[in-house]
Design a protein that fits this description.
binds molybdenum atom; Rossmann fold; seven-stranded mixed β-sheet; binds iron/sulfur cluster; binds ligand MGD
């Protein structure tokens, strides 16, 4: 290993001087039976609008204060289309983030004492001076572009403004190359538009919903779960394709327990059946699409019999489900999914999904894909951002040509010096993303971090990523701060306000304030012209006929659509798409122009070796990634994950329910902690399944430490999507260790 690897030891211990026990622990009082019983006696004295930050669905709601002025519950805002007045269990439990006494409490700076690296408590001034000095030094020596921002969540906008002003546009989120990037690119190549969030799917009005991996119900994206439940109630057909009997599968008319990694074969076969039987929407396809003849020729040999050999789904099931979709068309949704970085050919798989929807005429029609509208809100009057001299793309000449956004994994890779690259990244600002558990290949992420001159982590919790930072800045939780307006596209445009329901606890501050203070020290004060965030918001709100005062009362403001075009292709009017041909491109000229396959092809993926099983992972309804693992309200509901094992496999290995095992992957990496076995018919024999976000290794998180195991540790390998750089992560295989591994091996 290079010598530099020891420069930045991972700091596990609690910080110097933070020894004192917190005097009060209101959350446990709040959770305990007696207080629960009294809950009904409590009264809302005041309610403050917010939008939830427990996940990225961003439901708008209310923080209710009791007569002592404490936050005692969170509820949904009735006017909000993301939640329709109801928060999900995680959102309701969000108040646990505020009360969690393991929170980061004050700025920390890495220092060495007696040869040991520790965090020293610092004042905000010390922290900002330290960061500003290092940022300027990096800019002088390498250019400002060598600093990148990784961010997931609201604070990204504020730090993004600061960094763009500083001269770098290398701003990235794991929600692209580790999540929905391939979907956006696949749909953009087909329709000239992406899917966005919340997804533009008209589940409420659909007659047939096809879920390919999307595990809505465990994936608790609120509005979609509600709409799916409504669709089921009104008798819509649900078809779920999943190697696991998911919650969604249990609500479905058809469950197709596909062999993982073979979905492309199923999709191509469905396309084959629909074209061959002429079940496609002829008028729609004639009028709007480009490349039907090429597609027809391309899928000629992809019969259900061919797909059966690959997917293990019987030919008559493939035909029957294709017929169900055609019967419902155009009120049918082949759901584009969200976390789609699976096998490296993900953009192409999402192209196949997009094509199938086009054949059935669901895009732009009721019960298919609607056209969301967003309220336009005036931009701030700030100076133009300087034009950067270089971008992350320079590190990848000729690659990932259709990537629409920066790649978190790409910037991470380009931080490790390589021959021939003139500048590698030298500084990371990491806001609200636990990159250690979020990016694949932890060893690679850690190596990248060791090569940095500066890493700043802004977080609310002492998550693993903060242990590698030079400076840690404690952000207050979403319940203690303002943030940018939530401006979201939906059936009707809305804006929502987040206002503080409590003073920031400890010595924590909002990201807006941090970004402004840092900008001042960098000589970029003009980019934050308002003294207070309240003033900035009020100015913006006044441009759209509202005010901070009004929004504090209503939380969510709905606007009328500007045009009556929720379903723009209803009645088959003339329409021009934002593609080269102006049509829906079944045959993608954009892909062809960049040297990628214009029509999606099936490629076989590697199979698990003997005694190994494919590692697949997903969500639990009461947790969000790793961010909720220490939330006292939510650990109460679920405090560890289990590994799902098929009974046949359990028998072979002699595994019993709740027995603890360690998982070892194909590269010999073993989980830090054991995980309990769940023996269940609900998973295929060739795969094991676990919920992402557990197995925390940082002891500062007292409730999460050592609970369950981390899928991220086992994802050492990826298949990178050549089109846009997404990291396919379901290409790892694991086996069981029934005894504790010896220290050296782990
Ligand atoms: N192995 C594996 N990797 C994955 C996935 C997977 O399923 N398995 N899923 C992928 C997907 S789909 C996504 S979208 C990404 C998600 O990736 P991330 O968003 O990075 O997920 P988290 O691990 O929850 O990290 C969130 C971090 O934000 C912090 N945080 C929470 N609230 C605040 C706040 O208000 N302010 C600040 N400053 N920080 C806050 C939390 O403490 C935590 O450290 O991960 C991707 N990576
Ligand atoms: N409660 C909760 N809800 C969440 C989140 C959360 O953290 N917690 N995160 C949100 C985010 S950012 C995202 S991106 C979404 C992710 O959620 P989704 O986009 O709905 O689902 P995925 O993560 O793609 O896939 C998980 C499912 O895919 C199945 N699967 C595994 N391999 C294959 C395969 O080869 N083929 C098929 N057809 N299926 C397979 C798994 O068994 C599992 O049921 O969830 C969102 N909702
Ligand atoms: S879906 Fe749940 S966790 Fe996500 S924003 Fe809405 S209430 Fe919060
Ligand atoms: Mo995601």
């Amino acid at each position: 290993m290079p010598k530099t690897l020891n420069r930045r030891d991972f700091i596990r211990i609690s910080s110097l001087g933070l020894g004192g026990l917190a005097a009060a622990n209101p959350i446990f009082d709040w959770l305990s039976g007696s207080v629960m019983a009294n809950e009904s006696l409590q009264e809302t004295i005041k309610r403050i609008p917010t939008y939830c930050e427990v996940c990225f669905w961003k439901c708008a709601g209310w923080a209710h204060l009791n007569d002592k002025g404490d936050i005692w519950k969170l509820t949904g805002n009735d006017d909000d289309p993301h939640c329709n007045g109801r928060l999900c269990p995680r959102g309701t439990g969000g108040v646990g983030m505020y009360y969690d006494d393991d929170r980061l409490k004050t700025p920390l700076i890495r220092t060495e004492v007696d040869g040991k690296q520790i965090f020293k408590e610092a004042s905000w001034n010390e922290a900002f001076d330290f960061i500003a000095k290092k940022m300027k030094k990096i800019a002088d020596e390498h250019g400002p572009e060598c600093i990148a921002l990784f961010s997931h969540g609201s604070g990204g906008k504020h730090f993004g403004r600061m960094l763009k002003a500083f001269g770098s546009q290398n701003i990235t989120a794991p929600s692209y190359a580790q999540c929905r990037g391939p979907r956006e690119v696949g749909f953009f190549a087909t329709y000239g538009e992406g899917i966005g969030s919340p997804e533009r799917v008209d589940i409420r009005d659909t007659d047939c919903l096809v879920l390919i991996g999307s595990h809505i119900g465990e994936n608790m994206h609120n509005g979609q779960v509600q709409e799916m439940s409504d669709a089921i109630d009104k008798g819509s057909t649900i078809i779920t394709v999943d190697p696991r009997f998911s919650t969604a599968a249990s609500k479905s008319k058809h469950w197709l327990p596909i062999k993982p990694s073979t979905d492309m074969a199923l999709l191509l076969s469905w396309i084959h059946v629909i074209i061959n039987n002429e079940w496609y929407d002829k008028k729609y396809v004639d009028k709007y699409t480009f490349g039907l003849d090429e597609l027809k020729e391309h899928v000629k040999s992809y019969t259900p019999e061919w797909a059966y050999g690959i997917t293990t789904i019987k030919p008559h099931v493939i035909r029957k489900t294709a017929k169900e979709m055609a019967n419902a068309a155009p009120s049918v949704i082949i759901h584009p999914g969200r976390h789609v970085t699976w096998y490296g050919d993900d953009t192409q798989r999402l192209r196949a999904v997009a094509i199938l929807n086009a054949l059935l005429g669901s895009w732009g029609r009721r019960g298919g894909f609607y056209n969301p509208e967003k309220k336009k809100v005036a931009k701030l009057n700030i100076p133009r951002f300087p034009k950067p001299q270089k971008t992350w793309r320079d590190a990848f000449p000729g690659k990932f040509k259709l990537a629409g956004l920066a790649l978190a994994s790409g910037i991470c890779d380009a931080t490790i010096p390589a021959a021939g690259r003139d500048c590698s990244f030298k500084g990371w600002i990491v806001n609200g993303t636990n990159l250690i558990s979020t990016l694949p290949n932890q060893a690679n992420t850690i190596e990248a971090i060791q090569n940095l001159d500066l890493m700043v982590a802004i977080d609310t919790m002492p998550m693993e990523i903060t242990g590698y930072a030079d400076v840690v800045l404690p952000e207050c939780t979403y319940l203690e701060r303002y943030d940018n307006l939530r401006i979201s596209g939906h059936r009707e445009p809305t804006i929502a306000l987040r206002a503080p329901a409590a003073e920031p606890k400890y010595n924590s501050k909002s990201a807006w304030w941090m970004a402004k203070e840092l900008s001042n020290r960098l000589g970029l004060g003009d980019y934050f012209p308002f003294e207070e965030e309240e003033e900035e918001l009020d100015w913006q709100l006044k441009q759209v006929g509202s005010s901070l005062e009004e929004m504090k009362k209503i939380g969510v403001k709905k606007y009328n659509r500007q045009y009556d075009d929720l379903y723009p292709l209803e009645g088959l009017p003339d329409y021009e798409f934002n593609t080269n041909s102006g049509k829906i491109e079944l045959y993608s000229t954009a892909m062809e122009d960049e040297g990628y396959d214009p029509l999606p092809k099936y490629t076989a993926h590697e199979e698990p070796p003997t005694d190994f099983y494919r590692l697949i992972y997903g969500r639990a309804p009461m947790h969000t990634f790793s961010r909720t693992a220490n939330n006292p309200n939510l650990t109460d509901l679920m405090d560890e994950n289990k590994v799902w094992v098929n009974p046949k496999v359990a028998k072979e290995w002699g595994l019993k329910n709740n027995q603890e095992v360690w998982l070892e992957n194909q590269d010999g990496v073993v989980t830090s902690f054991p995980i309990k076995v769940r023996v269940t018919e609900r998973i295929r024999w060739d795969s094991v399944y676990m919920v992402h976000g557990f197995g925390h290794t940082d002891k500062r998180m007292s409730r999460a430490y050592g609970k369950g195991a981390s899928d991220s540790e086992l994802i050492t390998r990826t298949k990178v999507d050549p089109v846009m750089g997404g990291t396919g992560m379901r290409v790892n295989f694991v086996t069981f260790l029934t005894e504790a591994p010896t220290k050296g091996a782990a």
